[in-house]
Design a protein that fits this description.
The complex is a heterodimer of chains A (about 250) and B (about 325). Chain A is mainly alpha-helical and about 250 residues long. In chain A, about 80% of the residues lie in helices and about 0% in strands. Chain A contains 9 helices and no strands. Chain A is globular, with a radius of gyration of 19 Å. The longest helix of chain B is centred in the middle third of the chain and has 16 residues. Helix content of chain B is about 35%, strand content about 30%. The chains are: A mainly alpha (about 250), B alpha/beta (about 325).
């Protein structure tokens, strides 16, 4: 009974999460960010004579995977639970006879779905403008980065979701992870690739289109299992944390 | 209702039915701060007011009952089992939290229906409309909650909490923001639920709110249960305790002479431009002061009860 009720609750919570995440200011900001690869694609297209690797590396990877994906994910991932904990509405979910894993799963589907939709659409449109006319190589590169966005969305949002259940500074810590760990340290210490969601994403993309070794340091057969382990561990941790969630005593 | 920590004269007789809510020496502390201290009571069907000043531990107690806080010591049982880390208990519990926030983008009906569906109700639509009707939000049910007044949001929260007809309803300051008419309607609703056999516990820091709806009350002060039992008995204690009243008049000395002969007055103190009077019978004093001042030809400028704050009333109960 509890299991059935929990499964049935997932789409309900997903819908409310989606409406919650589509706040006006956040949506406008993220739409503007998602427009950047498309605008750059238009610039490349207008300039003519585009090389698939140049565009994939300079725009889809450097702007899409490195910048757009983690920023969208950190904003949606930390807000999915963080905003509800902040304003107290999380109690309306927790005071229900549903399993905590269902709440976590619904939040992941909602936040990762929004992230994936925005980033995949951005990369797909940018790829369609510049790479589609360049034959199979261009189409494969587009597919690869759309896949990278899908994998990256789920992984990043899982991480930021669980982070928001442990700290109120999830947004700040998330940005530090993206900028310092993945941005700076991963260039200096190649071994960090095993602990980098960016590398999981481009590693999976490698299955669709061969990237340069210095761009994708993990093979698909390594990246995909690591991504799955990350998501499973994050969801388990989030569920564990939510089961122990306590409401403060208040000022009564 | 049974109580272990309250003064014996305030303890009502125990009921024979199995209690819906039971606390046995329950305590909760945060580091060195004790929020709830060795509280024991049990409640059956009916409306009970949880009364206490700010910081008394009411919300902590309600959160323990709602399963959102584990007791640091003692036992908390709702319907015979611990509510902590047991989501299935929410099939029988409704909770109205103190915090105002409700999803602002949902309409009132959508919010209540969301609650009904998460409860797994077979006919969520019908139950939702019924709950909306019971709290009197029919006219506003299709408006986003973000446009609601504070009182309307409170009623939407109550509708969401009772849509599954819970056996136990916990409400934290439910009358906040409601106008007097809405309060009366809400009190009637809680009364009806109590008659139907539900156990309702609501917190308040306003004595008069409890008076209208709760025949039984629990008084918490500084984390401890200071008193519990029938409202009228505790109200009488609160009213008949020693009161200090300060008076400013056209002739304090003459008024003091007139008052000190009355048996209701047991101390009179004349200060610079102020007269302090102590009485154990506030209502008798109110009748006396008007007649005495008129008879003495003294004009009253100000009559203030110096210790009428709720905190002082609670403080008196604790010291007894």
């Amino acid at each position: 009974m509890m299991f059935t009720r929990s499964v049935a609750a997932v789409p309900l919570i997903v819908r409310v999460t989606l409406r919650q995440l589509m706040g006006r200011r956040r949506t406008v900001l993220l739409l503007l960010l998602a427009a950047i690869p498309i605008l750059l694609a238009v610039v490349f297209w207008a300039a003519g004579q585009v090389d698939v690797h140049d565009f994939a590396s300079g725009v889809l990877d450097a702007v899409g995977v490195t910048l757009l994906l983690p920023i969208v994910a950190v904003l949606f991932g930390t807000a999915a639970f963080g905003a509800e904990i902040e304003d107290g509405t999380v109690v309306y979910l927790l005071a229900k006879p549903i399993s905590r894993w269902a709440i976590v799963a619904a939040k992941l589907v909602g936040a990762a779905g929004m992230t994936a939709f925005l980033t995949m659409a951005s990369v797909f449109v940018a790829g369609a403008i510049v790479l589609a006319p360049l034959g199979e190589d261009g189409a494969a590169a587009t597919r690869a980065f759309v896949a990278a966005m899908a994998v990256g969305s789920i992984c990043y949002v899982s991480l930021f979701l669980v982070l928001s259940l442990f700290t109120r500074r999830a947004l700040l810590i998330g940005l530090i992870y993206v900028l310092v760990w993945e941005g700076a340290l991963s260039n200096l210490l190649p071994g960090i690739a095993n602990l980098s969601i960016r590398q999981y994403s481009v590693g999976v993309a490698n299955a669709f289109w061969q990237m340069k070794p210095d761009e994708a340091r993990l093979s698909p057969s390594t990246a995909l299992p690591l991504a799955i382990v990350l998501v499973v561990v994050a969801l388990a941790l989030a569920t564990w944390r939510l089961m122990r969630f306590e409401l403060p005593g208040g000022s009564d | 209702m049974t109580v272990q920590t309250a003064p014996p004269e305030l303890v009502a007789p125990a009921t024979t039915a199995a209690p819906a809510i039971q606390l046995v020496n329950a305590a909760r502390w945060y580091g060195n701060v004790v929020a709830v201290n060795d509280v024991s009571f049990s409640l059956g069907a009916g409306v009970t007011g949880l009364l206490g000043p700010n910081g008394a531990g009411k919300t902590t107690l309600l959160h323990m009952l709602a399963g959102f806080l584990a007791p640091s010591a003692g036992t908390v049982l709702v319907l015979g089992r611990s509510p902590h880390r047991d989501p299935s208990v929410y099939r029988q519990i409704g909770l109205v939290p103190e915090r105002e926030a409700v999803y602002p983008f949902l309409t009132g009906l959508e919010y209540v229906r969301f609650n009904a569906r998460l409860q797994g109700l077979r006919n969520a639509e019908l139950a939702s409309r019924d709950a909306i009707h019971r709290v009197g939000l029919d006219d506003a049910m299709d408006r986003p909650i973000g446009t609601y007044s504070k009182g309307m949001r409170q009623r939407a929260k109550v509708a969401g909490a009772l849509v599954h007809d819970p056996q136990v309803l916990l409400l934290d300051e439910p009358f906040n923001g409601m106008d007097p008419r809405q309060r009366l309607a809400m009190m009637d609703l809680l009364g009806q639920m109590a008659v139907a056999g539900r156990t309702i516990l609501f917190s308040s820091h306003i004595l008069e709110e409890v008076e209208r709806v709760g025949t039984e009350i629990l008084v918490m002060v500084a984390g401890r249960l200071a008193a519990s039992g029938d409202y009228r008995a505790i109200r009488a204690l609160m009213t008949d305790r020693p009161h200090t009243i300060t008076i400013r008049s056209s002739d304090d000395r003459l008024l003091a002479t007139a008052l000190m002969t009355d048996p209701a007055i047991f101390a009179v103190e004349l200060g610079p431009n102020v007269l302090s009077v102590r009485t154990a019978h506030l209502s008798a004093f109110r009748r006396l002061i008007a007649g005495a001042s008129r008879a003495a030809g003294v004009r009253l400028f100000e009559v203030v009860s110096a210790d009428e704050s709720l905190e002082s009333v609670f403080d008196y109960l604790v010291r007894r």
